[in-house]
Each structure stands twice: as structure tokens, then as C-alpha cells.
Design brief:
Blueprint lengths: L2 E6 L9 H9 L5 E4 L3 E5 L1 H7 L3 H16 L3 E6 L2 H9 L6 E3 L5 H6 L11 H9 L5 H6 L2 H8 L1 H11 L15 E12 L2 H21 L2 E12 L4 E12 L2 H15 L6 E9 L2 E2 L11 H20 L12
Parallel strand pairs: 4-5
Antiparallel strand pairs: 1-3, 1-4, 2-3, 6-9, 7-8, 7-9, 7-10
Helix pairs in contact: 8-9, 10-11
């Protein structure tokens, strides 16, 4: 167990504390990958040798320091690789580290539904379930050739290896400055999907305006939905082309939200994060003959000039997104 996946229990609108909490992790290892808005991966291989403690013991020290220095609790998953650490995090609870021991990967995965595996979408899970491969244990026991016939050669091999517990991922150090986030908490636990979507519209509009203000585009959009029981669901989507266009960000956010299939979910907040930022001047844009799209882009330019002259409240975020 050399990889930790940590999710800090940050209150809504306190994401600004994440860089300081990442600094806490960097006291143990320089190999830290931020997972905004409230998490991180940490590779502790060097730290285990240096401190003479295993990852679970170091996780306890990290938890105590986060509480003592910042008043923030955290949940932690530990595993031989990033994928397993992320999956262990889903079973973790505050004050307790959920660990996947080396050699116990298949036992940990066996009873989990196939959709729990990172990278397995709704369509792939449906296909596998139709053939009785509804758990990762059954997928691991299936012949590789069968999986490749069902979901394709490359996807089948990746699925087979992951179900066996083979984790080829690695922790890639990064920084939260390479992303922008917009959080929309609700005054009370919200059941209305219409209000969820309006919050996403507002958040996407804010992100688009902020990206255009710094002449950046994003390649990936991440949606985080937090629930009344303090659990959360996170989904990411790589955009068709890097963009700062509010309407494109809104469409991607709506698609991810719709794919969650929430039924009467008590939602505490929704958040969007624009990741993979790059200079807008280096981005290409697919030309379109759609007059509506071009009109919306021209309106965005006017709205941006109004914000620059009269302040951010001159135009309500998200009011121009389609």
C-alpha cells in the first residue's frame, strides 16, 4: 500500500484551503497530484522508507495534522496504485483509512459491481451485465477473448487487467492553479432537478467568463455533486475542443448531470471545475454555419466588455448560456 487517495471534508466555498492542505501532504512526499475541488493522490513509496512507517500509519499522521492545523477532517483510501486507492476511498469513513493490501486486490474487487471500476461507463456496464458479467469477480474470471469480443480489443484488455487488480496508473504531480472552479451550494438540501440545472447553468457561465477574462480555454470539465449524507459523485468529460464558451461548458455539464440518473437525490451543492487550461491563442475552433452559435458568441463578447467596465455583477453568470 503505497498510494493514498485523500478527500478533505471541506465546507462549501472553502476550496481556497486546498493548496495549504496539499502543502501538508508535500511534507511527506513531493509526488502529490491535486484532485480538485477537495482531494489529492500521494505516492508514499519514498516516505515509507524515510519515516519507517507504512502508508496506513502515515495516513493517521496526516489526518491528525489536518485536524490540528486546519480543523479539517479527511477520509483516506490506500492501495498499491492510484485506481485501487480511489476505489478504497469510496469505502472509507472519517477517522478510518480503508486499505487494499498488496496481494488482496482481487478479493477487494471481486464483489463490486462492474460499474464501480473507473473508466466503465453506462453503455459498457450494460453490455457486460447482459452477458452475466455484473461483478468484477466475474469479469476477472472471464476469458480475455470474450471480453474483447464484447467491448473491443483495447477496452477488453484494460478491463481484464483492472478487474484482476493490475493498476498501471501513476501519481502525476500537478497544481490547482492549472484549473478554475465554481461552486453552487444550496440553502437547504435540494431535490428539484430544475434547480440543480439552474445552478449548473450559473456555474458554467461563471467559469466561461473567468476563462475568457484570462484568455484561457479548458480541455476537461469536472462535475462534483455533493449530497446530504456528505457523500459526493464526481464525473469528468474531455471536451470535443478546448473552449471558454459558456454554452459548450453548460452542455457538457448538463450531459454529465443527466448521465448520473439522480432520482429524488438530496443535493447539498454542485461544483464545476475547468481543467487542462491552455492559452486561448493556441486553441483551434471548429467553424460552424449555425447562426445561433455565432450570435451567442457575439453576445458573450459584449457581456465580457460590460463586466470589464462595470464589474462582475453587470451580467449575471450563466444568463447567456444556452
Amino acid at each position: 500500500m503505497t498510494i493514498l487517495c485523500v478527500r478533505f471534508q471541506l465546507p462549501p466555498m472553502y476550496e481556497a484551503a486546498l493548496p495549504e492542505l496539499l502543502g501538508l501532504l508535500e511534507e511527506f512526499t513531493p509526488v502529490v497530484e491535486a484532485l480538485p475541488p477537495d482531494g489529492a493522490l500521494a505516492d508514499l513509496r519514498g516516505a515509507e522508507r524515510y519515516f519507517g512507517r507504512d502508508a496506513v500509519e502515515l495516513a493517521s499522521v496526516i489526518r491528525v495534522r489536518a485536524l490540528a492545523l486546519y480543523g479539517v477532517d479527511c477520509v483516506i483510501g490506500a492501495g498499491p496504485g492510484p485506481m485501487l486507492a480511489r476505489m478504497a476511498l469510496r469505502d472509507a469513513r472519517p477517522g478510518l483509512t480503508r486499505a487494499v493490501p498488496g496481494g488482496g486486490e482481487r478479493d477487494f474487487l471481486a464483489g463490486k459491481p462492474v460499474a464501480a471500476l473507473p473508466g466503465v461507463g453506462t453503455a459498457t456496464a450494460r453490455t457486460l451485465c447482459e452477458y452475466g458479467l455484473d461483478t468484477l469477480g466475474r469479469v476477472a474470471a472471464a476469458p480475455l477473448s470474450t471480453l474483447q469480443r464484447l467491448v473491443g480489443a483495447r477496452t477488453g484488455r484494460e478491463l481484464y487487467e483492472k478487474a484482476q487488480g493490475v493498476d498501471r496508473g501513476r501519481v502525476v504531480p500537478n497544481g490547482v492553479s492549472r484549473s478554475l472552479a465554481a461552486d453552487r451550494p444550496f440553502d437547504r438540501d435540494e431535490l428539484d432537478p430544475g434547480r440543480h440545472r439552474r445552478a449548473l447553468l450559473s456555474a458554467a457561465g461563471e467559469l466561461g467568463a473567468r476563462l475568457r477574462a484570462v484568455d484561457k480555454v479548458c480541455r476537461t470539465l469536472t462535475l462534483t455533486v455533493r449530497y446530504a449524507d456528505r457523500s459526493a459523485t464526481t464525473r469528468s468529460r474531455t471536451l470535443k475542443e478546448p473552449t471558454a464558451h459558456s454554452a459548450a461548458l453548460t452542455r457538457a455539464a448538463y450531459d454529465m448531470y443527466g448521465a448520473l440518473g439522480l432520482q429524488r437525490a438530496r443535493v447539498r451543492s454542485v461544483a464545476l471545475r475547468a481543467e487542462g487550461l491552455a492559452p486561448a491563442e493556441h486553441a483551434s475552433h471548429q467553424l460552424t454555419f449555425d447562426p445561433v452559435d455565432e450570435k451567442v458568441r457575439r453576445i458573450e463578447e459584449v457581456a465580457d466588455r460590460a463586466r470589464a467596465k462595470f464589474g462582475p455583477r453587470a451580467v449575471m453568470p450563466g444568463s447567456l448560456a444556452a
